[in-house]
Amino acid sequence: MSVFDGLVGQEEAVADLTRAAQAARKIAGAGFESARGSSAMSHAWLITGPPGSGRSLAARAFAAALQCTGTRPGCGECSQCKAVMAGQHPDVSSLSTDLVTIKAEEVRAYVASSYQAPGSGSWKVFIIEDADRMVERTTNVLLKAIEEPGPRTVWLLCTAAVADVLPTIRSRCRNVNLVTPSVEEVARLLVEREGVERETAYVAAQAAQSHIGVAKALATNPEAAGLRKKTLDALASIHGVGDAAVAAWMLVDPELMGVSTNRDKAAEEREEADRLAALGLEAGGRVPAAVRSQVRAASVDSKRRATRTLHDMIDRELTYMISFYRDVVVVQLDAQVALINADYAEAIQSVAAKIGPAEALSRIDTLGEARERLRSNVAPQLLMEAALSAMRQ
User: φ and ψ at 177, to 5 degrees?
Assistant: First the structure.
C-alpha cells in the first residue's frame, strides 16, 4: 500500500512527486548542488489545488516518500513511511495554525532548524499548511531559507492557488497542482476507507462538491451533517425580511462570536484560569511582570482562534447556500448535470419556480460577496442578515 493511495484522482501529481522522490534518493548524499542539476527534484515545492483536493495529504505523502527506505519511494510499509504518516518522524515538521495568520516567530524557528542535518531520515522536510495565511513579514522570514536552503532540506508549501503567495516565493518553488476529484472517486474512498454505506457516501460526496475532508465529515460526523441541514432548511424557509433575520440568528452561533453573554464571560474566565494555572499562577492574583506578556499573548491567541472557528463555520454555510442556488439554476435551465443537493430537490424545484435564472445568479453573486466580506472582519451577524435578506422570496 503506497502513501499516495489516499490522493484520489491525482495521478499526474502523484507521478511528479514519485519521480522527484526517486531522484532524491540518488542525490541524498550529495546535497542540493547535485539536486539543482535534476529537473525532477527541487528544494522547495508549492502544492496547490482546490479545497478538499488533498494538499496537506500530498505534502505528507511526499515527505514520507523522501524518507522511505522501501524498494519504491512511498511504499507505506517501512518504518520511515509509517512514522511520517503518523506525524511522528523527527525530521518532518508540519506548521499549521488555527489562528487567522501564521506568525513570523513560528516560521523563524523552522528556518533556524532547517540548517541542521537530518537525524534518522535522508532529508529535513518542512510542511507549511495554508501558506496563504503568512503575511508579508512572515513570508520574508522564509524567503532567505528558500533562496539559500540547507543542503538536505526540503520546503513544502500548501495553498489553494499559486497567486496566494508572494512572487518572490513562488518563483523559487516548483509547483504541483492538484485537481478536483470526481464525486464517484470520493464516494468510493468513503466506502472503502470509512465503511460508509454507498448511498450515504454518494450524497455526502455530492454535497461536499468532491471536497474529501467535508465529504468525510458529512458522512461520519453528525454535527457537520447537522450544520448543512440547518443551513439549507433555514435558506428554504426565508420568505421575508423577518425570516431572514431569524435565519441569520440561527446560523451565527453566539457562543463562537465571543459576544457579551454571561455564559461567554464564564467560559472566558475558565480559559483564563486554565492559562494562569499552567504558569503556576492563581486566577485573580498578581501576574509577575516576567510572564505578563505571555499571558496577554495567550489571551489574544484564544480570541483569534475563536474568530477563525466562527469564520470557517460561516464560510461553510455560505458555500452550502451557493451550491443550493447553483442547483436552482441547473433546474431552471434544464441542464443535464447532477444536483449538488439532490436530497433537497423538492425545495430547489420550489424556489426555481418562483424566481428567474437572472435572480438566482444575482443571489449567487451576493453570497459570494458575503464570503469576501467575511475575510475583511465584517460583523458576522450583520453580514449574514444582509446576505439572507437578499434571499427572500
Answer: -105, 130
